[in-house]
Design a protein that fits this description.
The chain is α/β, with parallel strands linked by helices and 399 residues long. Helix content is 44%, strand content 21%. Strand 11 and strand 12 form a beta hairpin. Bound molecules: zinc ion. Zinc ion binds next to loops.
Length: 399
């Protein structure tokens, strides 16, 4: 019995080593534009025979493909080069919205293959709707379910990390009784699933786009205000999953009562509807057009009333953002969401307000800039997060 158990353990260990070597080779091929088997053996410090057999397995599974001959320094045989086959796997990235969801499929090279939006009038049926949507998207992309390696779901809400439930959201009609994520887990038990605050995925996408930056805060200003935090290239969500709840930091202790129970929350006083209200009370209100496009023009033309309205909003935003800078000491603060339509004058005022109240020795090197992500940052960030985990930790299926 003992020796049988030992053999089983040895076999399990060998299987683990093989899987981790397979992931290592797959990851190295992904990092290089194209690479030969000999180069892989050198980088992975594995024997050429082991590498060849792992590469054969990845090719047979459709994860890697040969892409012609490479160059060689000597007059010897030219090596066959390898690259990740984008069609070797797929991840689904979801963003939950007030009336439904947006779902996008990405291949292994993070190319978007399918994008769809669905209305879900009854939020208690979100789970079955998502499962149906994912199956439909896979069908549309011509991808078998065995090639679905992960699903990310971004939500504007508070998540309980331990139960994987959305506890509350000031935007979505959802509470912790809603089992949509459990239903996804039951239906897709063997792949990577990640439920996250949407700002976290957006923050991750900003990091992907800025290779030289490793720690940043992404501040999203829409109807809700939230922050996503990346520290040393990893999403930081805190012990219970709620780091970055910038919108519910009070900036006026005597202010109006927020849905969350606090007074004077930043989200209540400086979100997009609050800004529109301020603009409506300025000279723009008299013209009847309080669009951000008009506000941007008025700011560029130096309209005193619009400037004053935006300065008061920026003072509130600066108060919240400055706290995050002081506590986290990031390399950059990235501002995203609808608010960026207010343009560069808005950004200039925001930076000035942050500078006025900043703690100088610690914050001088922090840059404050607009998001540069094109398309949906929540789905793209969720997909990139999953793909990075797959290349780092495995979790892909061969065959
Ligand atoms: Zn609040």
């Amino acid at each position: 019995m003992v020796s049988n158990r030992r053999m089983e353990r040895r076999s399990a260990n060998l299987q683990t080593v093989k899987l981790s070597n397979l992931t290592l080779i797959f990851s190295l091929i992904n990092q290089m534009e194209s690479v030969s088997r000999a180069e892989l053996a050198q980088m992975a410090e594995l024997s050429p025979t082991t590498v060849s057999s792992l590469v054969d397995e990845l090719i047979a599974g459709g994860m890697v493909r040969e892409v012609g001959m490479g160059e060689t320094a000597t007059s010897g045989r030219k090596p066959i080069m390898l690259e990740v086959d984008p069609a070797g796997g797929t991840v689904a990235a979801v963003e939950l919205r007030r009336n439904g969801y947006c779902l996008e499929l990405f291949d292994l090279k993070a190319n978007r293959r399918v994008a769809m939006e669905e209305d879900v009038p009854d939020y208690s049926r979100m789970g079955e709707n998502l499962i149906r949507g994912i199956r439909r998207a896979l069908h549309r992309a011509g991808v078998p379910e065995s090639k679905l390696f992960g699903i990310s779901v971004g939500v504007p809400g508070v998540i309980d990390k331990t139960t994987g439930r959305v506890i509350s959201s000031t935007i979505l009609p959802i509470d912790e009784e809603n089992p949509f994520f459990d239903e996804l887990r039951d239906r897709f038990p063997d792949i990577k699933l990640r439920l996250g605050n949407e700002s976290c995925f957006s923050a991750y996408m900003e990091k992907v786009q800025r290779k030289q930056i490793h720690s940043l805060v992404y501040v999203e200003i829409n109807e809700g205000i939230g922050a996503g935090i990346v520290v040393n290239d990893h999403i930081f969500t805190g012990a219970f999953g709620n780091a970055g709840e910038l919108g519910h930091v009070s900036v006026d202790l005597n202010g109006p009562r927020c849905k969350c129970g606090n007074r004077g929350c930043l989200e209540l006083l400086a979100n997009v509807p609050a800004i529109r209200e301020k603009l409506a009370a300025s000279s723009l209100g008299r013209t009847g057009d309080v669009s951000f496009e008009e506000a941007r023009c008025a700011l560029e033309l130096g309209d005193a009333e619009v400037l004053s309205a935006i300065e008061s909003i920026c003072s509130l935003l600066a108060s919240g953002i400055n706290s995050m800078i002081n506590i986290l000491n990031p390399e950059a603060v990235i501002v995203g969401g609808e608010i960026i339509q207010l343009g560069d004058v808005f950004l200039h005022i925001l930076k000035k307000k942050i500078d006025e109240i900043s703690f100088k020795p610690g914050t001088q090197k922090v840059t404050v800039e607009f998001s540069a992500v094109k398309g949906n940052p929540v789905t793209q960030g969720g997909a990139r997060y999953l793909l990075d985990r797959i290349f780092q930790d495995g979790g892909f299926v061969i065959g």
